[in-house]
Amino acid sequence: MITELNDLNLMGCAPVPLAHYLKALGIFRIVAEQKDLGVKGYWKGDSIWIKTTLDRESLRSFFLEEYRPTPIIAPWNGGSGFYFQEEKLKEKDPLTGKKKKTGRRTQHTAATRAVQAILESKSKRLSSYRKSLAVVKSLVEKMGLANAPDKEEKEELIQAVRNRLSDPAIDWLDASVILTTERAKFPPLLGTGGNDGNLDFSSNFMQRLADIFEFENENGNSKGRSGSWLDGALFAENTDCLVSGIAIGQFYPGAVGGPNSASGFSSDSPVNPWDYILMIEGALFFASATVKRLQTNKPGVLSYPFSVHSSGVGYGSAAESDEKSARAEIWMPLWEKPAGLSELKALMSEGRAQVADRPARNGVDFARAVASLGVDRGLKSFQRYGFLERNGKNFFSVPLERIVVSRKIQVELLNDVDVWLDHFRGKARSDNAPSSVGRALSLLELSILALCREGSNDQIQAWRVQDVLIALGRCERAIVRSSKWAREAFVKPVSLLSKDWLIAANDQSPEFFLAASLASVHGRYKDRENREFTMWLRSQIEPIDHGNFRSFDETLGNDAVWSDGEPISAMNDIFSRRIMMAVRSGASCCTDQGSIEADLGDIAAFIEGRINEKRMMDLLCGLILVNWPDVSWNFVERKIQSDLISPSASFALIKLCFAGRKVRDVTVPLVPQIHRRAATGDGFGALQLAERRLRRSNLPAARISTKISPELTRRIAAAQLFPIEERQVDHLAKIVMRPSVIREDDQTKMLWSE
Predict the structure, then answer these.
(1) Phi first, then psi: what are they for 239, rounded to 5°?
(2) Distance from first CA to last CA of the chain, Å, rounded?
(3) pTM of the model
(4) Distance between CA atoms of residues 686 and 675, nearest Å
């Protein structure tokens, strides 16, 4: 007989806040273990759905009449209900004004009354709870503990409890505290051993059970408002008369009460008891997960499922201080295909998040894992939570963002810098690191998160890759500016990037192609010992080893003439330095080439100020990190050529003197004064020298009588740094070469020098 399954939408269970996510897991686990073993759950929209043999009414009846609570017990905490307060007299001490103490610990608390109520209860539904409490109470008395145990006693008590309790009760212990060979450690999901400050989760759980069940009744019938509260917890129905004054702790920041938390100026913290109970039940999903991850990890180092160190980026209130004060981050998985209990336990037990063949260590790493499918298949998205200090020293599970699981191959480019980034992150977050370095790291991590979030739009992805390149360049610049710190901290330059970055960052914009052409500039020179070497542009932006770019070398500081100010001046300084080095090396002409040649139309746009120069220069600082010796000529395809738009004749005349190639099979000797005059704004003098130089090389240059402003002249001078290819040299020659006049058979023929 085939039993019909019902699809129930539990609208009261959403991915946000964390309390409601855990509540969804709790409902699913309880139904699967106590009522319908074949139940399956999945996320659809912003709520969880379950496929079950139960209908809406039978699901309600199960929780109200049959549900057996899991024993939630934490005797190692002072507020667990096993330790009485010291009794006080009505008489006050005249010196302190406080009531005198008797020295006897016999005064009840709300926690001790909750434990006693369950121990004295008659409900069959609480029989497992009663047995577990009795065992623990006996152990506490046997150890002679009158108040919360200290460190050594705590670990002894935890071990004793673990040896004596039944499996259901041990699940809570495993979810909240783990004993290692060093000391007890606490999974971040449940605070510091099942408590959040003075709030003990186990005691609160027992008190909420008293709100909904009649302990004195053998059947443990539900109390009056329990059904209404349950409808609110399961189906998000309007529920009034919630229990006030209850602290829900870190799981639901919006329900902590206080100013502006309700329609009035202030309010208590109204909580639905079922929400709290089911939330704690859901946290038990992570019990076996923590144990499994512990067994496979290094000694003394815990790795909790889907939990990583905090990254203080990617959300509105982000700050670097969050990384030091935060307890952790946890990324809760959302899945859209129905899954059973065993499947979900396996998912939570593995809790896999891999990036570059290693486990994710922080929030940025986890985002990379999600975007590169370094997580379990079948997941739809992850809801990111941070356990952050807010409202004083209180920890709240703050929902940060949601990232969809989809492979973005661009994210895998970050594997090139994975080792460097891990090292740099540790140095940049140290106490003695300059603030500029910390800011650069934050911008880099923010750009990585943005890359991981974006959809499949190629244009947007290219922009995001560019943003990462720019951020990497800023990190490099921050290191260079803090050279003393970098030297003492052994901070290395950014690792060389593969040529695939050029493909991924190609948005077909003139800014990208101009920056790429500049970054690819290289030429052969000789040092002072007459040794020949190749100088790439990266060596002129920062003092770095010419050979392998793996270390900074301050002895090469004279070659690094880059400044972070106005880009035209920076480009002219770089080109002037290259001309000087070519002369010193004995070169007869300009030797610079480019792996990627600039488009003449883009150069014209640069000279005329029609491009985003800041974006171009920012991209340049990132693109110099590419491993250019590995990039073949014109590796990046320009789909739209704009050579029909040519630069001015003034640019053409000067560029033919610094083309880096022969002009109509003629080698044009190097004349540094041409660029020097142009760089200072002397357009007339620069053009005169250029015209004279070309004519002396038997290249009949036309006279350029156009007056050029000093500013435009400086831009033309800076544009000489852009490399061009042979056909572009020929095109420029057509612009400025005069025709030759030859008499033959009394006929005049005009021959253009082509």
Answers:
(1) -135, 125
(2) 91
(3) 0.87
(4) 7
